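Objective 1.3, modelling of assemblies. Example input:
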Amino acid sequence: MAEPEVNLSRTYDVIVVGSGAAGGMAAHVLTSHGLQVLLLEAGKKLDIEQELRSMEWPYDNRYRGGLPPDSHSLTLNEYTIRNPPYGSGFEKSKHLYSYVGDSDYMKNIVVDERENPITGTNYAWVRARCLGGKTNIWGRLALRLSDYDFKAKSHDGYGEDWPISYSDIAPYYDKVDLYLGVSGVRENLAHVPDSLFQRPIKLNCGEMQLKQGIRKMDRTVTQFRAAVATDGLTHNKYRRRCLARGACNRKNGCDIHAAFDSPTGLIYPALDTGNLTVRTNAVVREVTVDQQSGKVSGVHFIDSLTLKDYTARGRIVVLAASTLESARILLLSKSRLYPNGLANSSGHVGHNFCEHLMGPRIYGQMKELVGKPPTLDDGRPGGFYLTRFRNLSDRHPKFIRGYGFEGNSGCSMFPKGTDVPGFGASFKEEVRKNQGSYIGMGAFGEVLARYENYVDLDPQVRDNWGIPVLRFHYRFGDNEKRMAEDMLETAQEMFEAAGFRILRANGRMFTEGWSIHELGTARMGQDSKSSVLNEFQQSPAVKNLFVVDGSAFVSASCHNPTWTIMALCWRSCDYLADELRKGTL
Amino acid sequence: MGNDKPFDYRQNRRSWVKTSLAALGSTLLPIPASSTPVRRLAWESAEARTESGGGFFTGAQHALVEELAETIIPADAQSGGAKAAKVADYIDDVLNTSVDASEKGLWQEGLRLVDGMTRHQYGRSFMDCSSEERIAVITILSEHADLTDLPEIQFFHELKRLTVRGFYTSKIGIHDELEYKGNKLSLEFTGCEDSAKDRP
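Predicted structure (tokens):
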């Protein structure tokens, strides 16, 4: 069935490409300034009621929540050994998904890897082409960056400083906190700035014990800072307050939208202004450029179902397609004026690509909780966050920058500990007795931004829509390897300090891309010879072009980027609206 | 390009209200009628699936799988076991819909081999053995679980894996056995009752 058509005969004030955290935020801010916005999303509109089944019991699901048998989700070992384009060896499977698409709840949200191939180095690229993008399935950890990140080069000499500091973005973090809701506890740590928190999601007993145990090491475990409206939001009728129920760790979104997702958090309120037009199934393949003025004039897009080609016109184009997709669009937008791609006079588009290192993790047990009656430990997107402690006031001899841990403990719907040996009555009893006594955590570390880590366009391979795919040149380096060793060591040290029995500790680094936090491919900077955008995410050479997603980051930090993406985007969109009013664009 | 009105994405708000009310009323949500054209597999309810019956095991095999699964996870004072949780039906469905020929083959072979073990040991089929005899034979496999080059051992791992999965995603497993406290409405997340633990 074809999408009813939006009006493409008019010239919109702004065309926004992408409807995730950045695109949704751009639509919200720009429409609130009274601008007429066309929001283009490559994916489909999700049937939210059908897809976000937060309270579905596994026994009411056709496959007990697993994937249908004709589908396959790539595993860590497969990403390690097999090379992109992923597909060969899985001929029996009708659908092939990234590692995140491993359940019935994800299969309609994440992309099919065969329709959207990549080439080059091994990379676990997770994409969600649908209205709201990955915000429908994200981890919901909302952390601020600090000047330890914005001025990381001044701190340790590596890379570049951001062209902004914390004081520039702090008021925008506040706006995001209040508009979307974030829950947590004030810790007064300079390197993990506090937000304007709603009531925290409490730690459970195992997590308290870890917190106590590492206090003497001067390290901090704090409540998972969740992008969840625990006290509700009076200004958004599409979102309920959190009711601490649901299989939140299933990560397929919140059916009452207490957890932030872009459609209900940003796009529907923007539609209410009357200034927003949304067109889904619109795969943007190029930004159009007026060859006389050198300014952008709109975009070409392909309908993802009919493959028909369309052109939309806008006075301004805002790319928010996600770090890699926005870089891809810039590279695809070659013209006589811009033979290297759009906004790429520096040659840095696609380069300085970074994300977060994952893999080292630990799993332990608290004997005090064995045999205790079951407790409610679900109904929240995460348990605790263990904040960065490396390379703040000290200098580690082997690596720069830092890492934190995310983790949780307690009972869950599918019990932990079914991998103990044995069977029968004693096995059953063992699983029951121990179900609430486990605690685990995994590390997230900063991957250094390197010019030599980049994506470009594959000269031959195309996706299902005939668009050249990305070719990856991205590998972890020595700093990441040494950081991984330290992650494993400190994880064990901290679990021992907390009195846990360590059951498993693993230092294996996951495949590049596992964090799903791609950043840096169109970085901001003060020097246009080594950066793509200015501090307002605007191209200095093409003033009516903005790129407001994670591609603008100068460094990855070790903190999850979504909250920062949205704060930066808000700031840049305020600037855009102002400049448009003044007539400089 | 027509004059059709574009989708109003906010129409989901009506469905939100419906979902919210349903959630307040019960934990079993009604199955909504799909309102958008879909390029995905047809959805069948779990109840409909059980009614139509399995398709992979013969009657005799199905009975054997019931007893094997019950040996892995038996009924006890806390709750029913794999038999009560209809784990054999679940395994039958998994194998029936599987596209993996080697998985199907392993089960055929494994059932045959295990029955052979009890015949050798006790002169009787697994079905005719006592509970202690059955446990003794499965114990041999369990104690040699690392010998994964043998199909018997591979079968043991698969038997345990699917029994565990089928049991702990069943009503008996979740509600009776584990007494799972989640997936219901609360005012807020409870956390640790002992706040005295949070002293510096």
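Residues 562-582 of chain A form the longest helix (21 residues).
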